[in-house]
């Protein structure tokens, strides 16, 4: 699967643009603020129906205009698939595949899978556990339709339980709490099982990528931490009851799960250099890529935004060698320096299509 063509109308700093891509390597080169990342974001819309960077759709309409349109032509199994995304100010986003409008955007997710690696992803390493749970949940949802529904049910039940714990100063209703607990256990055990299965395969893929990029330079670990790994969910809830009542919130469950990252047996967040953290992050995203590939049976698009910053020359070369090899598909990457791109791909011996971007125009 690859993207043949992208057309933009009044999308961010593009008035009217049309690009035809190579099925292998495509580079967007230009100065800061030229519009390189905006092109990646346009592609992201076609795949996941939204911006990677900004959740407010109307802010992607070019200043002073009333609508944006993004159109893409994908080639999937040798057939052309046309994807359309249009937004008029103050109206609902329209999303179509082969001219047929979707009723539920969720039905589109996963048809044209994509992995983006961007400087914004640092939060995954340095931020709170919620970022890492979101990452895990997003990857699983792209390959398992029922996962997201179960998670929504779990979160609804959790809100209900927390509201109950907050509501009654004189003491909670134990029967009602019991009902919430039964539901939490039902949904939570499914989520725990699916996260554990996901992480078993994902961790292996992640390690392979990290070792390749760094040439085995440092020992690292990724561990799934969940209260459910040592205690049955129902038992954990029972034990936490008194504490939950005093704190007025639920302190045990899969909403507390985390991924623990370490380097040479120390927390990566505190002890990893910026380059090591970035290498870790890239390996996580490439692990996501390989996981999607393995589960879907075809290659997602790979979008690399500003990937070269903070990586040494050796790691850059190894990374590029890896992503242009057979097990990766179509690649889009941005850089401020077109000469660096030409030199890099020249050395690797892979032809790259380089688009020069300048103030929302493309050469
Ligand atoms: N809705 C909009 N209408 C018009 N221009 C916009 C809109 N949203 C963003 N821009 C412009 O897009 C430009 C940013 O583009 P982008 O993030 O793609 O830059 P870039 O080439 O990736 O730069 P860098 O190298 O700094 O990452 C900015 O000049 C910004 O003002």
Automatic annotation (TrEMBL):
Keywords annotated in UniProt: ATP-binding, Cytoplasm, DNA damage, DNA repair, DNA replication, DNA-binding, Nucleotide-binding, SOS response
Q: Where does it reside?
A: Cytoplasm
Chief location of this protein within or outside the cell: cytoplasm
TM ranges: none
Q: Which superkingdom does the taxonomy of this entry point to?
A: Bacteria
List positions binding ATP: 30-37
* A matching Pfam family: SMC_N
Annotated GO CC locations = cytoplasm
Domain (RecF/RecN/SMC N-terminal): residue spans on this chain: 2-342
List the GO molecular function terms: ATP binding; single-stranded DNA binding
A Gene Ontology biological process term: DNA replication
Family, according to the entry, reads as follows:
Belongs to the RecF family.
Q: What does this protein do?
A: The RecF protein is involved in DNA metabolism; it is required for DNA replication and normal SOS inducibility. RecF binds preferentially to single-stranded, linear DNA. It also seems to bind ATP.
> Know the name of this protein?
DNA replication and repair protein RecF
Organism listed in the record: Anseongella ginsenosidimutans
């Amino acid at each position: 699967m690859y993207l043949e063509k992208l057309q933009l109308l009044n999308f961010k700093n593009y008035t009217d643009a049309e690009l035809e891509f190579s099925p292998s390597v495509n580079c967007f080169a230009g100065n800061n603020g030229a519009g390189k990342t905006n092109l990646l974001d346009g592609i992201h819309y076609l795949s996941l129906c939204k911006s990677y960077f900004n959740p407010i759709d109307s802010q992607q309409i070019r200043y002073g205009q009333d609508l944006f349109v993004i159109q893409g032509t994908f080639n999937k199994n040798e057939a052309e698939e046309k994807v359309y995304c249009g937004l008029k100010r103050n109206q609902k986003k329209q999303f179509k595949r082969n001219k047929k409008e979707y009723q539920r955007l969720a039905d589109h997710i996963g048809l044209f899978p994509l992995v983006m690696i961007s400087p914004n992803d640092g939060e995954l390493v340095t931020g709170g556990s919620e970022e890492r749970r979101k990452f895990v949940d997003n990857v699983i949802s792209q390959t398992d339709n029922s996962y997201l529904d179960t998670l929504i049910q779990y979160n609804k039940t959790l809100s209900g339980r927390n509201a109950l714990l907050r509501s009654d100063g004189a003491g909670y209703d134990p029967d009602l709490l019991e009902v919430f607990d039964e539901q939490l256990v039902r949904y939570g055990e499914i989520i725990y099982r699916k996260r554990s299965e996901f992480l078993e395969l994902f961790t292996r893929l992640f390690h392979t990528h990290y070792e390749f990029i760094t040439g085995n330079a440092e020992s690292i670990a990724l561990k799934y931490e969940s209260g459910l790994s040592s205690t049955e969910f129902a038992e954990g809830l029972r034990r936490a009851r008194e504490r939950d009542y005093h704190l007025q919130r639920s302190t045990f469950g899969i909403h507390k799960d985390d991924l623990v990252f370490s380097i040479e047996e120390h927390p990566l967040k505190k002890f990893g250099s910026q380059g090591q953290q970035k290498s870790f992050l890239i390996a996580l995203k490439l692990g996501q890529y390989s996981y999607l590939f393995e589960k879907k049976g075809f290659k997602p698009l790979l979008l690399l935004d500003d990937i070269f910053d903070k990586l040494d020359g050796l790691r850059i070369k190894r990374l590029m060698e890896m992503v242009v090899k057979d097990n990766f598909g179509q690649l889009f990457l941005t850089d401020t320096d077109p000469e660096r791109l030409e030199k890099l791909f020249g050395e690797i011996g892979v032809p790259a299509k380089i688009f020069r971007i300048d103030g929302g125009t493309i050469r």
